[in-house]
Write a structure and sequence with these properties.
- It is built from 14 helices and 17 strands.
- The protein has 443 residues and is of the alpha/beta class.
- It has three domains: 143 residues, Rossmann fold; 72 residues, Archaeosine Trna-guanine Transglycosylase, Chain: A, domain 4 (Roll); 200 residues, Rossmann fold.
- The strands form three sheets. It has a six-stranded mixed β-sheet.
- The protein is globular, with a radius of gyration of 26 Å.
């Protein structure tokens, strides 16, 4: 049975290609949605880019016919810009004000009532990324759903970057004897990915265990090449932190992603690894640290002072970690140190676009607030001989149209998890303090 999907503005602004995501069903764009898109097209951020993209897309479709009469999409569906279902009376009885959201609801409701009156079988579904719009639709008796086509993975299938496998103790003994294992050592059905970590435990119940890493080509399991010695005063406090350092300090892995709740050590570990590689080993020319000014691309000119002063409130978490690593005693010491070194640069992501960044250790903090397009833009800036680390907490998102499964960080983790040039670890145990861990878990 075919359906009629009525799209909210935020769906098109989030993904201009959403027009083609509804198979051979009918897709309705209310006229008010075009007005809202028009109001966004001059913005300099991601919303403005998407508004211009959907405008060009719709303009190109006019060669196939009149949009208000309906045109056939490549997937067999029908696209229509709706001009006639604008009666607001029924929605006004419920919500009163003629806001744009309520006008979109009115279009969906009128379509729904028309289907009932004419005894047609097509069900009407309002698609919106706005939770309150979906709640209002439910109050009106309408079917409503989030836009799900951009979701990379379900919330229960997040790639952690490591697995705990229970094996016969002879397998653990074999590893310690030969210092490697092949995939044939495991039972059928276990598919390990390149640079994935494996914790082996004795299925017989003894304390025997081993920590291994899958090779870049995925052919064998090898011991970790790093000892647990301090790095810029930082020592791994749990198995996941040790795995993270293994990836951060491996020059053969140019893309590393770290996820985890607040206080799990993502930023501190990445900074310590970057300082070691840049200042001690001179593997990279510069340490570049950036985080989005949420929303990304937002003009920060409303803050007082020069560029550095404007950035400081947004970048303060980075400076806090640098002060800890450099063991500064007085306020302002870290600025003098960074000025003297010259090889450490703290930036907003706004200034990274358009650049080519070769030979640098790049850290992108709060990457969960990036869209898929923004992550693609950033990673495609990485030049020859550079390493990039993206980290964040997918459960702590400030972007209005992103969630744990549709953000750029989750997107890149899932798409690169089978590639030998990348590695990922989910940090689970908070090490900031007992209070911080309880707050992350309970609140």
């Amino acid at each position: 049975m075919k359906k009629i999907f009525v799209l909210d503005t935020n769906v098109l602004l989030h993904d201009p290609q959403s027009l083609f995501a509804f198979e051979d069903n009918e897709v309705i764009i209310p006229a008010v949605v075009l007005e809202e898109i028009d109001s966004k097209k001059r913005l300099a951020d991601e919303l403005g880019r998407n508004a211009r993209s959907i405008s060009r897309l719709l303009d190109g479709m006019r060669v196939d016919g009149r949009l208000h009469e309906g045109i056939t999409l490549p997937n067999g569906g029908l696209l229509k810009v709706e001009l006639n279902h604008r009666s607001f009376m029924r929605v006004q009885e419920m919500f009163g004000e003629m806001s744009n959201d309520n006008r979109i609801l009115a279009v969906a409701l009128n379509y729904h009532l028309e289907q009932l009156e004419t005894q047609q079988v097509s069900s009407v579904v309002l698609v919106s990324k706005d939770v309150l719009v979906r709640i209002k639709a439910d109050v009106l008796g309408l079917m409503a759903q989030d836009y799900l086509s951009d979701r990379t993975v379900s919330t229960t299938d997040f790639y952690a970057g490591y697995e705990t496998i229970f094996v016969h103790p002879s397998v653990i003994d074999e590893f310690y004897t030969y210092r490697f294992l092949t995939n044939k050592s495991f039972q059928a059905g276990i598919r390990l990915k390149p640079n994935e970590f494996v914790i082996l435990r004795d299925e017989m119940g003894s304390s025997k265990s081993a920590l291994l890493k899958v090779s870049n080509d995925g052919a064998r399991l090898e011991p970790l090449f790093l000892s647990n010695d301090p790095i810029w005063g930082i020592t791994a406090r749990n198995a996941q932190q040790r795995m993270a350092l293994e990836l951060l300090l491996n020059d053969e892995i140019p893309l590393v992603t770290l996820t985890g709740k607040a206080g799990t050590g993502k930023t501190l570990l990445a900074l310590a690894a970057g300082l070691l590689k840049v200042e001690d080993e001179h593997k990279y020319k510069k340490l570049l640290i950036a985080r989005p000014v949420v929303p990304m691309g937002k003009d920060i000119g409303y803050l007082p002072g020069e560029k550095e002063e404007k950035l400081r409130p947004w970048m303060q978490p980075i400076y806090d970690n640098l002060e800890y690593l450099f063991d500064t005693k007085k306020s302002g010491d870290i600025d003098k140190i960074l000025m003297g070194l010259g090889s450490i640069q703290v930036e907003a992501l706004t200034y990274i676009r358009g650049r080519s960044i070769p030979g640098q250790f790049i850290i992108i903090d709060e990457a969960q607030n990036l869209t898929k397009h923004e992550v693609k833009t950033i990673v495609s800036r990485v030049g020859e001989g550079s390493k990039i680390v993206l980290m964040g907490d997918p459960e702590q998102i400030d972007h209005p149209y992103l969630d744990a499964v549709s953000n750029g960080l989750t997107h890149i983790v899932e798409h690169f998890k089978s590639e030998g040039i990348s590695g990922h670890i989910t940090l689970e145990k908070g090490e900031r303090s007992k209070l911080a861990q309880l707050a992350a878990d309970l609140l």
